[in-house]
Structure formats: C-alpha cells, structure tokens
Amino acid sequence: MIKSIMVFYCKSNGKVRYTDKVGGIGHIRKKIFFINNEYLTEVKGNHLEGVLTNITFISNLNNIFGPYGKNNGLVGTPFHLKGEKIVGFYGTTIGRKYISKIGSYFAFFQIGSTMCTGTWPFKPLELPFGGIPFDHKHHESIKTISIHCVEDVLCYFDVKYRNNGVLSWVITSEKVILKSDNPKKIVLDDDEYLTEVEGRYYYFLVYSLTFFSDKGNTFGPYGKEGFRYPPLSFHLKAGKIVGFHGIQGSFALRSIGFHIAPVESSGKSSIKMSTQTKLNIENPFAHNYIPKTIPKS
User: Fold this and answer.
1) CATH fold label, 1-109
2) Which residues form the Jacalin-type lectin domain (predicted)?
C-alpha cells in the first residue's frame, strides 16, 4: 500500500518548493531524483478496495521509477495518467494511513500541441471478453456526440467532428452487437467545446459518462448510475477535448481516453484518477503549483 507522498518542486526562478508529507507513516521510504532536463510524463499503478496499492512513475527520458508498494498478489484495477509534463499532484488520503486517490496536473508545451490521455480502465484487453481498439485522433473541434445506451448499458458512441469548416462522422459501432435505435445526442454550439469529463467504471466496463462545456452546460450522466459494487471514477479537466480513443466491446464500451488541445486562456490540464466518488473519511490534498504553458526545453 502507498502510505504517503512528499514532493519537492523546482520553480521557474530556480528555487525549490517542498510540500508537507500527506498520508501516514511508512516503514520503507523511496526517493526519486531527476537529472537536468528530466521530468515526469506518466503515472500508473493499481487501486484495490479504496486504496492505492502500488505506483510507478515514468520520465521523458524513459526512466522507470518503481513500482512502489505491494498488492499482496491481488491485481486490483489499474490506472494510467499520461501527458506532456507533470507539474503537480493532488488526491485524497484515508485518515492518516493511506493514499486513496491520486491525480496529476499536466502542462502543455505550447499552444497548437495536443495531449493523449487515458484510458480508463487501463489495458482492458488483458481482461475477459477482449475488445477492438479505436482512435479518432485529434480534430479541430467536436460538433455532435451520439451516445447509444441499451437498458442503461453504455454501448458505444459516434462523433461528428469539424475540420476546416467541414463536418464528418467517425463511427465506432460497426462491430457492436448490442445497438440502440434512439441515441442520446450532445450538440455543441459552433463556438462551444468540451472541457471536462467525469466517468465511472468497474473492472473492464465504462458504466457512465458526464460531459461539461466551456459555456457551463452539463450533458449526462449517460449510462448506469446505480451499482452493485462501488465503482471507480475518473475526472478529466482539460483545455479542449478534440478527440477520443479507447476499446470498444461487442456489447459495451470497454475503456475511454481523450485527445486534448490547450486553450490559450488556460495553458494547463489536470487529470484525476480516483477509487471512489467520495468517502467520508477521505482528506483532500493538492500541490497547487501549476504554471502556464511552458516552452519546450
């Protein structure tokens, strides 16, 4: 189990800023040191029964730090956060014992670049029932999302994108067996875009999705809201969502990820991966050092 985390940040003026240790008291301490021009780009690990069981960090130089922690032979549910440059962490702890959620703040290198994030769940192809990977790539903007649900099962979705003023559909439903004749549609204004997504999943299925736009509109939730087992959740808060990728199953959506473009007014993105939507015993933490768009070094 991951008991605590403490981070030293290097600010743009060269000064070092350190955070308080969050979590509990661990018996084994591990430290990660970086060389010049090295930074983190990925975080992955596993959650099990409401706690972070292990975690691995990967840098832009392909150095792998970890895995740290144990899962006592139990796999749990994997997660994967990936972006251009990690500049901060946030999450929650269970009392002063364990880390229960972890999220990362990502910075874009420059306006015009895109970032690929996800998927949630991570690597579902290794789990039962397989699936077919799909990748819409990144586009100029999203106009319409057609979401097909059958009896609250989130089966699949098709998207109409805009590129240079031309609208075109990207279809992911060709090999889906369970289909709906009455899809639910998200239709965005020409100057509107999606900035945020919340989702719930468990093991190898995406159960529900909720989308938020820059105009304050909420779309959803789509899919199942009542659960027999406590679901895992993810939260993506980004500049501008411009594409989707993931794995499509024969009967339901197996995983989902996103292509993100920065918005000039924000220049940053944050991604949150959590084990549950809310626990009364959780205590939040955040390292609020989030710079604007940073030049590529």
Assistant:
1) Vitelline Membrane Outer Layer Protein I, subunit A (2.100.10)
2) 1-108, 119-262
Using CA atoms, how far residue 78 sits from 97, 134, 278, 297, in Å, is 21, 20, 19, 31
CB 7, CB 89: distance < 8 Å: yes
Record: fold of 113-264: Vitelline Membrane Outer Layer Protein I, subunit A (2.100.10)
pTM of the model: 0.78
180-200 mean pLDDT:
91
Is residue 98 within 8 A of residue 23, CB to CB? The reply is yes
For residue range 46-100, what is the model confidence (pLDDT) as tens digits? 877 778 888 999 999 999 998 988 755 556 677 778 777 888 888 788 777 788 7
Question: Would you list the domain boundaries of the chain?
Answer: 1-109, 113-264
